[in-house]
Amino acid sequence: MIAFTGPALDRAPAQRGREGWVEARRADPRARAVLIGDGGVWIEDGHLVLAPPDGSDVFLGLADGAPLFAVYTAAGEPGSGHTAGLREAASELPEREAALAAYAASLLAWHRRHRFCANCGAPTAVADGGHERRCPACEAHHFPRTDPVVIVRVLDGRGRLLLGNQTRWEEGRYSLLAGFVEPGETLEDAVRREVAEESGVEVGSVSYVASQPWPFPSSLMMGFQALAERGEPLADGVELADVRFFERAEVGEAAAGRGPLSLPPAYSIARRLIDAWLAGP
């Protein structure tokens, strides 16, 4: 079983839209805000830097009753610690704090990109504690977007694992195949299409394994396993420079940090799907 820990928060969806509720939480002396700057999330001594909310924040939720917010802060503040991009933060922070940082950064990025109504162009206003923006001109409601992505662990009849090297990656770096779900497409259909498009391999049975929020900027990675039925791997030359089946021993060497093969980082769903396969029968 693969589990991806999310932030241990009560997001209070039934309360945060009430008039004055978020303001009262902001006035709570226990209230703190995750700080996001131009360089990423603020970190000090291996933990998130938290500060009192300043009114320009968005509400994240309640952690053991204490209100948590997210706020953008200019470069140079808060005066201690350092900023880290989300990928770097994921390897530096405890798992729950990394999940909280991803949540905060994704929500704030959505606000920065949606200050104006996509329907009429008028400036929008924050609502529902920061989980919605409303247009006062045309009364349109706008919500944070999550883009579904499938990522698949493809095995063949010999128990080998299909891995690809993207055209923009360095030689030797390989990962599982993945791609965005298209409109009107089931997740299983997206798995079959992406694998066929990128590698020429046709898969049969498809089963769900696990999911992981992927805030680059706002995706949800849904992990599957599939069994290859037909076709020999052949890179499409657009997405992938190379694609092939790897023996378990070769992937195991890479997971141990040996050999020429390089795998995805430990915090990624791709690596966890690979590691779970290596740990299995």
What count of helical segments does DSSP give? 6
Q: How does the overall form come out from the CA principal axes?
A: globular
In percent, how helical is the residue content?
10-25%
Residue runs with pLDDT of under 50 for 5 or more positions = 1-5
Taken in chain order, the helices and strands follow as HEEEEEEEHHEEEEEEHEEEHH
CATH superfamily of the largest domain: Nucleoside Triphosphate Pyrophosphohydrolase
Q: Which fold name is given in CATH as the topology of the largest domain? A: Nucleoside Triphosphate Pyrophosphohydrolase
The end-to-end distance, rounded to whole angstroms, is 13 Å
Q: State the major sheet.
A: 7 strands, mixed
State which percent range the strand residues make up.
25-35%
User: What CATH first level of the largest domain would be assigned?
Assistant: Alpha Beta
Number of domains: 2
Chart the SSEs and their pairings:
Elements: H1 21-26, E1 32-37, E2 40-44, E3 47-48, E4 50-51, E5 58-63, E6 66-72, E7 82-84, H2 86-92, H3 95-113, E8 125-127, E9 132-134, E10 141-142, E11 147-155, E12 161-166, E13 177-180, H4 187-199, E14 202-214, E15 219-230, E16 240-246, H5 248-255, H6 269-279
Parallel strand pairs: 1-6, 11-15
Antiparallel strand pairs: 1-2, 1-4, 2-3, 2-7, 5-6, 8-9, 9-10, 11-13, 12-16, 14-15
Helix pairs in contact: 2-3
Short summary of the structure?
With 281 residues, this protein is an alpha+beta fold. It has helices at residues 21-26, 86-92, 95-113, 187-199, 248-255, 269-279, and strands at residues 32-37, 40-44, 47-48, 50-51, 58-63, 66-72, 82-84, 125-127, 132-134, 141-142, 147-155, 161-166, 177-180, 202-214, 219-230, 240-246.
